[in-house]
Amino acid sequence: MLTFIPTPIGNPQDITIRALKEFEKASLFLCEDTRETKRLLRILEERFDFAYPSDEVEFLSFHEHNGAERLGEVASRLADEAVVYVSDAGMPVISDPGQLLVEHCQEHKISYDVLPGGTAVTTAYAASGFKEGEFTFSAFLPQKGSERSSSLIEMMNRSINVVLYEAPHRIEKLITEIAHIDEEREVFFSKELSKKFQNYYRGSAKEILEQFESGSINNRGEWVVVIAAKKEKVNALYVDDILAFDLQPKVKAKLLAKLTDKSVKEWYNELIDL
C-alpha cells in the first residue's frame, strides 16, 4: 500500500503521530529529495520517540525530473509493500510530482491513503485575515518575460483572492510588479511560516513595496503571498497597464479583449498599427 505523508512546513513539532507510525512501518521511501527526508527523520529520532529506519529500508528520489521513469521501476512494489511518499515540506501531491503516483494507483486499483496535514497555502490564507472564505491557488508565477507579466495581470483581474508562492530572490520583484499594476491593491506577505523568523506583512502594494525598499523587510526565506481580489471593474486603468507592459502583440491583444468589448483581432490590428 502507498501512503502519502505530509511533513512539517517548518517546525518539526508539527509532525503527526500517524506520520511517525507510517514512517516506522515503511520498507520504501519515495522522496522529493532523499537528503531532506533523511534529515527530517534524524531530527525526529533526536526529539521524539521515533526509531530511524533500519539499513534494509530503501530511500529513492521521486521528483519532477525522474518521476515517470522512477514509477516504472517501483510500480510492482506499490501494492505489496509499505511504501510512503513525502515531499520536502508540506502536503504531498499539491503542486508536486506525487500526482503521478495517485493517478497510477487509481488506474491500477492499488490501495493508497493520504494523511491530512498542514500546507503553506491554507496556513498563509488563515493568517492573512482576509474575510472571503474562498481563494484560488496558483503555485509559482513564470520566472520572467511576457508570460510572467500576462499571468500576473490575469490573476489581478480575478474576482477571487489569489495565493501564490515566490522565491526569495524574486519576492521584491513581485511586489514591484503588483504595485505597478495597482499600488492600492491589498496584499499579504508571509515569510518563513512556522519557523523561528516567521513574519506577516499586510497592507497596500505600495506600503509593502516601501518596506522592502527601506530595508525593513529583507527577502530571505520562503514566501507565500495573498493578493486580494479586484474589488471593482476599472477597465481604463488595466488597459493602460497592459499597454505599458513589454508584451508580444498577440499576448496583449488577448488580455485587452478580456477587459473590453473589442475582439482579439481588433486589438491585434490596432497594436500593429501603433
From TrEMBL:
InterPro entries for the chain: 4pyrrol_Mease, 4pyrrol_Methylase_sf, 4pyrrole_Mease_sub1, 4pyrrole_Mease_sub2, rRNA_ssu_MeTfrase_I, SAM_MeTrfase_RsmI_CS
Primary location: cytoplasm
SUPFAM superfamilies for the chain: Tetrapyrrole methylase
Record localization: Cytoplasm
Keywords: Cytoplasm, Methyltransferase, rRNA processing, S-adenosyl-L-methionine, Transferase
Domain Tetrapyrrole methylase: 1-208
Cellular component terms (Gene Ontology): cytoplasm
Taxonomic path: Bacteria, Pseudomonadati, Campylobacterota, Epsilonproteobacteria, Campylobacterales
EC number: 2.1.1.198
UniProt xrefs under Pfam families: TP_methylase
Gene: rsmI
Primary role: Catalyzes the 2'-O-methylation of the ribose of cytidine 1402 (C1402) in 16S rRNA.
GO MF term list: rRNA (cytosine-2'-O-)-methyltransferase activity
Family of the protein in this entry: Belongs to the methyltransferase superfamily. RsmI family.
Gene source species: uncultured Sulfurovum sp
Top-rank lineage group of the source organism: Bacteria
Catalytic reaction equation(s): cytidine(1402) in 16S rRNA + S-adenosyl-L-methionine = 2'-O-methylcytidine(1402) in 16S rRNA + S-adenosyl-L-homocysteine + H(+)
Protein's name according to its UniProt entry: Ribosomal RNA small subunit methyltransferase I
